[in-house]
Amino acid sequence: MASELQRVPAEVEYAEELAELRKSDDRQRPPNWHLSPWAVAEYLLGGRLPNGYVISPKYIGSRRLIEIAISTLATDRALLLFGVPGTAKSWVSEHLAAAISGDSTRIVQGTAGTPEEAIRYGWNYAKLLAEGPTWSAVVPSPVMRAMQGGHIARVEEMTRIPSDVQDSLITVLSERALPVPELAGEVRAVRGFNIIATANNRDRGVNELSSALKRRFNTVVLPVPGTLDEEVDIVRRRVVEMGRSLELPVEEPAMEEVRRLVTLFRELRSGLTEDGRTKLKTPTGTLSTAEAISVVNSGLALAAHFGDGRLTAADMAAGLTGAVVKDPVQDGVAWREYLETVVKERDDWRDLYRACREFAG
Amino acid sequence: MPVQVFGIRHHGPGSARSLLTAFEQMRPDVVLVEGPVEGTGQIHWLGEAQIEPPVALLVYRPDVPLESSFYPFAGFSPEWNALRWAVRNGVEARFIDLPKSNWMALPREAFEEDVEEDPLRKMAQLAGYRDFEPWWDRLVEERGEVSVFAAVYEAMVALRAGRPLGALEKLREAAMRQQIRAAMKEGFTRIAVVCGAWHSPALVTMPPMKEDVTVLKGLPKVKVEVSWVPWTHGRLQKVSGYGAGIESPGWYAHLWAAPEEPAIPWVAKVAHLLRGEDLDASPAQVVETVRLAETLASLRGRRLTGLAELNDAVETVLLFGDRTPLKLIEQKLIVGETLGTVPPEVSTVPLQRDLEAQQKRLRIKPEAAFRMLNLDLRKELDRGRSQLLHRMQLLNVNWGWPLQVGGKLGTFHEAWELEWKPELSIEIITAARWGNTVETAAAERARVAAMEATQLPQVTALLEPVLKAGLPDAAPAVLLRLRDVAALAPDVVELLKAVPPMVRITRYGDVRQTDRELVGQVAAELIARACVGLPVACGSLDDDAARAMKNAVADMHEAILVLNDEGLRAFWQEALERVAGLPDIHGLVLGGACRLLYDMGAMDGEALTRKATQALSPGTPALDGAAWLEGFLERSGGVLLVNTALWDLVDGWVSELRPESFEELLPLLRRTFATFAKGERRQLGERARAGKAAANEATEWHVDTGRAAQVLPLLRAIYG
Q1: Which residues are B464's β-sheet partners?
Q2: Interchain proximity B299–A67, CB inside 8 Å
Q3: Which residues from B are below 8 Å from A336, CB to CB?
Q4: Domain boundaries, position A60
Q5: How many domains does chain B have?
Q6: Same structural domain for residues B406 and B508?
Q7: Do A198 and A66 sit in the same domain of this protein?
Q8: Mean pLDDT over all residues of chain B?
Q9: Taking the model in full, what pTM does it have?
Q10: B536 in reach of chain A (CB within 8 A)
Q11: Chain B residue with minimal CA distance to A328?
């Protein structure tokens, strides 16, 4: 039963929307696409169909980026979604795959231990021993299955995958074929096959893509939320949701406290104060929305267990310093500069200044 | 029909192309262009080979050069092409707009109501476009067909219906109609009128002539002059303050040059630019970029691939999602750095006139012969001369070069080498785009230079000339830029070096109070940043870097003493203390910091002795010890005479050096001691000869309080 599951894939959850879009979609479709590029864009960004059916928006943000992503897939180039954590990379990738191929489950999860078999193919060893190498003994990877069916395959957290394993994608992307030397054959991709990879901006340099591989991807960077209000809203919602599931006995965090924190994150992230008057050094850390959420959460936990249940600057100082200062030398300077030139000057931020200075010692 | 009106968009390459096609069909016998009547006399210059767009028609009042207007033309502007077509085909061309002599005489408030939201912009918004330009490009410019003029005309008739005209608009349209009537009367039979699309209906449907005559009757008049001046693509931009400006002159120039297939050569240009900046851009990627841009265009339902699609595709394929290099592309290609030229004999720009007036007033003639000029800044005339020369330098008109002077006269004295070369007239014409008087132009040039500078020393270097040139309006801009650049400056030495000149500035007599406050504020911010970064920056320095650091710290220290701000002083002291507490930093820096702290009274004799013991202990390499000593003692050795413990320590250290170390260190020590004043050296020598026993005796100071008191009144008078 689908409703018993914790989570169902996008094409199941939004089956009705996809069906409606398909019905009204009379534009040209690339081979093996379930919808035309226009309809895919409509599915992602939301809208109203001619028959009055309302499509809910899946991605709230720049239309331009979604258009670039879809065009990339339509030109047979692989798509790489870059962004800091919490910018909806996997979410966009899942919905694109669901809308284009009707199937978002051909997925390779990238980790430091992802083996080559996860991208190419493995063997059913019982069969291999009994029959020797035959096609029926091959265990296809999600990528190979997508090639055979003309679908989209998804590779999550690409930069976590060891470089040599990453590079096995080069043949797949340039030749559109996967050789199987044991059987003196190969699997050739059916039209409509493509890859959407996601990677973390800040993982750059860990297992950075080789330039051969990089050149085969078009890169779309998903940005952090555009406005302060938008981001405050996201943080508050997520904190409330998570607080409920963690069952912390606290008051809902004061809007003021969240706004101050998000302002601080945004300023340090962009290297500019919100009033645009003072430039700042940016710390090396990501300072993503996701981290802002976790700072508030840990502050709430502190307030709940060791305080009076009300979130104060002192509760957040530890989490905040930890989130900003990732590199003790460089970030320490940026953080201290920020404290001395910005936080200190704001009258209603005095408590935060004291709490952070106290924490830094 | 004898009169045909072509409603164009100023600087629209598509309009220009449609216009030329239409001209070839129509073969007009006179071309009338929207632009001040006074400019007609200048049109013949378009036949010269030396005139190269972008150029601007400059109209100004010779008595008040600050009152002026520019009418810019780019190579792709329809007006430029209409005029050039006329000149090349031997057809008469005229400007027909309201005479600027009337326009400039009108009181400003007479046409203030004209400043209203652009109706075309509204139309673009109705069509779902955020900006006007892409909408117009897509609808009109991309077509390049003659039939476009009829469609634009219809649209303008609809837009103008029921909308009241502004006072100035009425005058201008009446004037243009009068000019058209005049041309008809002269017997021209194929009259082409080129004007902004907005005005086209008013020039087609003519009201009775009497009405226009009444409107134009009795307008006030002033004297104006007209000239061509070189212009740049950057100054065609709206952000540069030009009302009818465009966003992307470089892109338009490209469209003009390669109309059929703009995408491929554009991406090739981008790739070339990126390769020049050491970024990868392979031909295969160029192909993919063009493909993506074309797919995007079709997804967005556009007939031709536009700049938006190309930018998106370049960012995605060539730049791997990194937007930063797009700035470079924007600056070099989309806006472009093209500078136009005009023949040298064409121009009498107001800047030139203002310069002549200044030269006369200050009695400093431009002479081709090389000569020296000594200025005493205490004299009014000489100060004026100095300001003028500094201003010319800011404008890159290198008429004079300042010489380094020292000596008794110090800050009051300036020396210049002067030489006037004929090419400088061209430089002045080039500089004319910055402003109409030497003062305003220099200020604007300094402001722009500050905005363009990205390195701290570049901005700092601007600050002093700006103040010496007496440009109080430019100073705040430079200061604010300094502040922004400083925020990102990775180098603490640069930060340290930026502060002393600022502090020096506060001491100039003619700095305004507001500037002085701003300087103080910015300096405080810079000092805070420098203090925070100082301890980290003092780690792992080699000899040269350590010397630079020590000097920068010493200069900063002096600046802080001058500023006399208790909070900053405390902050600085804390930073120095942290430096002094660092393990394993270069002796020169450590010694310097100890000395400054000692002089501030922040480190007592005992603490100092402890520091010195550490630095001069046998565990520390002798070379480091010498460096510490140099850092500590440089400039003054008096402290050795006062602090007996320190004296013993240094004395002991020198006597215990092994002979080979001593030989190695001797030049270093000599260099240190050579910086002391003669008297000090003698006293130290005497002390050394006397040995330890005599030391205590020498520390007793014999002060004749009576004689010392005699200087106090004078000191009080000096320091107020």
Answers
A1: none
A2: yes
A3: 532
A4: 2-219
A5: 5
A6: no
A7: yes
A8: 81
A9: 0.65
A10: yes
A11: B536
